TrEMBL record:
This is Uncharacterized protein. Residues 1-11 have a biased composition (Basic and acidic residues). Residues 1-32 are annotated as: Disordered. The lineage of its organism: Bacteria, Bacillati, Actinomycetota, Actinomycetes, Kitasatosporales. It comes from Streptomyces resistomycificus.
Length: 410
């Protein structure tokens, strides 16, 4: 069984909205659905400048960067202005036609109210053809790792997750849009309706990680990392931060809350981005190793389907691989069974029955191994499944009798 190293990039969460996505992201917002105050807040956030306009009625906005004077938007200050609907329609059309990256980001946040998670890297200058694509890939890979670490922390608090919760955490990222990395900058859009808990947890975890690093560098103690687990700090997050900072002169991560949804409870309205430097890397590595060592094994009762079996001889103990159905949020696990338990698991494998087993899920190996396995037994199934299984036993009366009671027969 092979395992994904922590350093290996995750599968892409979602492409930029310029690529095929759901209708909600691609559909331009209707003027009647846009709050002028929200549009103004988003323009200001993305670097647009207000340059005059009729006070109390509308403002003239120009985009950031060179050539800003070539494009401008007239945005009403409120819907009380008589021509507000027409001005909003013209502004949205101009944004849709603009080649400015910030215009696309404004439209994305208007289409689906989203918290914006941003990453910046200060990358040493070098030949563009050598560094450009590798820097962008490093930034995207680190951002994906960090999003997954935040999603894991919304499932449970742990210093090290390993394989636990990974499927459900990855599924929770399905609605998150990740933009194109450019100039050492990357933005992800976390829809408020489905992904705000992720944005909040990541925001809190980053600040806790920064404080724990500062404490260690000031005092030499690692105790602050123990308390930081409750805020969402984990080995997975420290590995993501290492990937983000490694090879750079420093990196920052910040979260901007969706203006349409307001600031979540317990969070600052305008929090500064959290900065990490190469000098933080030894502390982050030590913290990750500490989390790996300290995370305890977990007592569990697993229900799973036997998918692989192996032992060196005709008798004695053997190893079994289960596809986990219930009892732990991991896809598969391995365990070693004594001869009798191995025989029960083998019969279950032959007839397609799942088994239930008690044991301890060990952190070593990423919570993919069950130790002290006991109580292996086939699991009852419903009547329709019972009939299907019994038909498969018609040429083996001994095994059929063994499983008759487990399948619910009289």
């Amino acid at each position: 069984m092979t395992h994904r190293p922590l350093e290996e990039p995750l599968r892409p969460v979602r492409p930029h909205p310029a690529e095929p996505l759901g209708a909600a992201w691609n559909r331009p917002p209707e003027p009647g659905d846009v709050d002028p105050a929200v549009l103004g807040a988003l323009l200001r956030r993305h670097g647009w400048q207000r340059r005059g306009g009729a006070a109390g009625r509308y403002g003239r906005w120009t985009p950031p960067g060179p050539g800003a004077g070539a494009t401008s938007l007239l945005v009403p200050e409120s819907r009380a202005f008589p021509d507000s609907e027409d001005l909003l329609a013209e502004a949205l059309l101009a944004l849709a036609r603009s080649g400015t990256p910030s215009a696309r980001e404004v439209l994305v946040s208007l289409a689906v109210p989203s918290d914006e998670i941003r990453w910046w890297q200060d990358v040493p200058t070098g030949p563009a053809e050598v560094t450009a694509w590798t820097v962008e890939e490093q930034l995207r890979a680190a951002a994906r790792q960090m999003l997954l670490a935040g999603a894991l922390a919304t499932r449970a608090r742990a210093g090290y997750y390993g394989a636990r919760y990974r499927r459900t955490a990855a599924a929770s990222l399905a609605d998150v849009l990740v933009g194109s990395a450019s100039g050492g900058r990357l933005t992800a859009f976390a829809p408020v309706a489905t992904a705000r808990p992720l944005a909040v947890r990541l925001h809190q975890a980053l600040y806790a990680a920064r404080e724990a690093v500062d404490y260690q560098r000031a005092t030499g103690g690692m105790d602050a990392f123990d308390g930081a687990v409750e805020a969402g700090v984990s080995r997975e997050l420290t590995e993501a931060l290492i990937a983000l900072v490694r090879g750079t002169e420093g990196a920052r991560v910040g979260v901007d809350w969706a203006p349409a949804a307001g600031v979540p409870a317990g969070c600052a309205a305008r929090a500064e981005a959290v900065e990490f430097s190469p000098g933080d890397l030894p502390v982050l590595r030590e913290a990750g190793a500490r989390y790996l060592r300290a995370e305890p094994s977990v007592p569990v009762r697993i229900t799973g389907a036997v998918v692989r079996m192996h032992r060196s001889g005709a008798r004695g103990e053997g190893s079994v691989r289960l596809r986990v159905i219930a009892g732990a949020e991991i896809p598969h696990l391995r365990l070693t069974l004594d001869e009798e338990s191995y025989r029960i698991a083998g019969h279950a494998h032959l007839v397609g029955l799942p088994v239930r087993v008690h044991g301890r899920l060990e952190s070593r190996g990423g919570f993919r191994r069950l130790t002290d396995a006991s109580g292996v037994a086939p699991v009852q199934v419903d009547e329709a499944e019972r009939d299907r299984l019994m038909k498969s036993l018609q040429d083996n009366s001994e095994i059929a009798a063994f499983f008759e009671e487990a399948c619910g027969g009289d």
